[in-house]
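Checklist before submission:
- one chain only
- standard amino acids only
- sequence pasted in full

Submission:
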Amino acid sequence: MKRDRQQFDGTEAELAALTREVDEAHRATLPAMYTAAAELGAQAGEKRHAARRGADEGLPDAGLDRRRFLRGLGVVGLSAFALAACSDDDGKGSSADPKASASGQAAPAPSGTYTGDLQVVALAAALENQAVGAYQAAISAAGAGKLGTVPPAVANFATTAMAQHADHAKVWNNVLTQAGKPPITGVPLKSQAAVTDALGKVTDVPGVAKLALQLEDQAAQTYLFAQFNVTTPAGIETAATIAPVEAMHAAILRYLLGEYPVPDDFLPVDKAAKPDDLTV
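Returned file contents:
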């Protein structure tokens, strides 16, 4: 049975070790992440030039080559995803096809600026920016003494996670830039007002951790959703290399809250953000 703790009762050494492990996993995925994102950006750039020549709109349909995707993901990514994917649904992970479980395909953005796979890319960049902002706000609140006593290992985890989210946002925005689209510099999400309001109300470390856990769960599940709803292998692989790190963030936050993680056979997608959550 999971426990709802009101304070961090783990050890500094354990939390520091977990933070080092997620940083190592992040660094291990960087080469594959940059390679896949560069390929996706190149394909998007080719699409942009083709559109100028009067070709049909949309990214080139490279086909959903699952074997290639699995080879490109590598053992590290799969292992991290399997070990770190944790659900707070009392162990009720979903084995259903994420494409069927999540509501609908990628819908056009209200302004039409981002379409097709690029709408999912924009959504991912917005989610990463949201996480960066949340961690930054928490770090600032801690520095101002608004969260009570903050163990150094907790502050270190927040700083590490924030930097990793910033790396991910940069990768997604590079894809948008190569496609001739404006990068996502803010948090154009329908949920942002609620997140900002919640951040203003937290008064201790557990409160921040619970909010951060919601964002990490959403990010991890969104990347799983993306793997079944983008059309290019490069897009699939980019999402797949980032998802394990987000899931590991969630696992560490559960540890911090005393909700020791038990891996699910399948990561659910009920909390995944959808492309129509974008407000741009």
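Reviewer check: The two ends are 42 Å apart (CA to CA).
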